Amino acid sequence: MEQLLLHLRNLGFTEMESKIMVELATKGQASGYEVAKQLGVSRSNVYAALQRLTQQGYVRCGEGEPARYSVLNPEELSTMISGRIQTSLAYMENEMPRGGPVTPSFYNVEGDRNVLGALIHQLNLAEQEIVVDVWREEATLLRSELEQAELRGVRLLWAFDGDNAVAAPPAWTPLGGKPPRSDGRKFSFVIDRSWCMLGMRYSDGTAQAVVTEHPVMVELLLNHFTQEMVLFELEQDMGAELEQRYGDRYSSIYSKYVMHSEDGQE
């Protein structure tokens, strides 16, 4: 019942209208007094809602005293609502003003479903290029959308973390702050060199991401991807020599720039 009421509200009906329509559908027909008594609400509110629903054509008012109301059957309701929504959507698309350029901004997306939903939507809009820097777990979740993009002729550029990953620098420890969560996997996507998402998925199923079309962030992520790929190729060609000279994973180089706090102190 609650799910039905929720979807009716999503279609534009008020909570009162939704409850009245479900009640009428359950009873077949009823007077305004009977509906108000069943719902435990004031008759004036019920009659006002019934008048709106009748004027809109969703509810029929029968002859007699007292008047008895009935709601359209589900198929009729669906056809009527769908037609009106499609008409409004078409009008909005044609008539909505198209203003000047909007300054690129950043916005946050939280929750695994919301993050993946926003990403999948954008992947389906990709026209030329997708730059992907992910762990294999996230790549698996998006396999279908990435394959469809390739079939459309979109170029995919990959950098995988996980097995055979590119050597990554150590994490920067917060200065005097609480250490970051260690169970997360970073990911980034740059689509058509104009839209990007940078985020983290955690082992408990939560996720957070930043989305932007700001050219500076797009360029930073593309440069980071390029550097990873260059480092990967260098490792393939000169891995043993690099490790002999600079140490495993080049820690002697990284240590000059990344300072680790001990008990919150530098």
From TrEMBL:
Gene3D superfamilies: Winged helix-like DNA-binding domain superfamily/Winged helix DNA-binding domain (1.10.10.10). This is TrmB family transcriptional regulator. It comes from the Bacteria. It comes from Paenibacillus agri. Residues 8-75 form the Transcription regulator TrmB N-terminal domain. InterPro entries: TrmB-like, Tscrpt_reg_TrmB_N, WH-like_DNA-bd_sf, WH_DNA-bd_sf.
